[in-house]
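Hi everyone,

Forwarding the result from last night's run.
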Amino acid sequence: MKQLWEKISKKIMMFGITMSGIMYSTLSLAAGTTVAPDPSKFTGKTDKGGAGINAVENIGNNVLGIVSTAASVISVIVLVVLGVKYMMGSAEEK
């Protein structure tokens, strides 16, 4: 059981590190694309009839909010499980 828990915790940590790297790089790369060259002429529509920048930004914010909430919930659960394991463990396990 201990080996299984160690494998799972390593995978969760690697997933968290990878996701945080992706989120931070995405935010920094997307920061420069939200401003139009001439803000006085910007209408929110694209030349090809697609969705405007505001729609893409809203979708990105929604996805980022969901991922942040899920990561927060997972981290709290992991901390509670580790705390209970620490309190219930013998001196050799600590």
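The CA atoms of residues 16 and 71 lie 8 Å apart.

Cheers,
N.
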